[in-house]
Amino acid sequence: MKKLLFFLIIIFFSFSNCKSAKQAKSKNPTPSKVIIGANTNEDIYTEKTIRTKDINASSGSISPTVSKAYNIVEYAKQFKGVRYKFGGATKSGMDCSGLVFESFRAHDVILPRISRDMAKNGDKIPLNNVGIGDLVFFKTGSRRNDISHVGLVVSSDDNGNIEFIHSTTSAGVIISSITETYWDKTFVEARRIL
């Protein structure tokens, strides 16, 4: 009976992803902890996807953080075209927070599973300062008080062209631009986890 109850609770919280839900407001909110472990995978990157300001001027090298962010993005891209599945986090179906959660988890960074909880982590940054691997958050539900959608920045440039990978109910895992009318109107904030 305890296992069934535990399973039902897990399913309930999984199904609250990418949806707006009323949540009690705490006077002293405490963000969830982000755990970053050692990554044994070889870091890969290309100059095209790394902005000039991410390169160390004195050595000409790319920081390990930027390289890790690139690897997280490349991992997320393998899910492009996967259908939307509420609460999903596999190639058989995925929701927005499942995509972000799995992409970071695969590189030893553990985030909360729900988009509104992810938005309590990392450092809030201005949209014009986002880079590869940063998270963008939106309020897309019928209740506009809670963050209900998250995307992972795959590219940005100094002209404000920002693209992010995410999972939508209509098209599954796709790459969109922040300048598209819908995403521009529902954008709330950007956060840097790494």
TrEMBL record:
Residues 1-19 form the signal peptide. It comes from the Bacteria. PROSITE patterns: NLPC_P60. GO terms for biological process: proteolysis. Residues 66-194 form the NlpC/P60 domain. The keyword Transit peptide does not apply. GO terms for molecular function: cysteine-type peptidase activity. InterPro entries: Murein_DD/LD_carboxypeptidase, NLP_P60_dom, Papain-like_cys_pep_sf. Keywords: Hydrolase, Protease, Signal, Thiol protease. Pfam families: NLPC_P60 (PF00877). Belongs to the peptidase C40 family. This is NlpC/P60 domain-containing protein. It comes from Confluentibacter flavum. The lineage of its organism: Bacteria, Pseudomonadati, Bacteroidota, Flavobacteriia, Flavobacteriales.
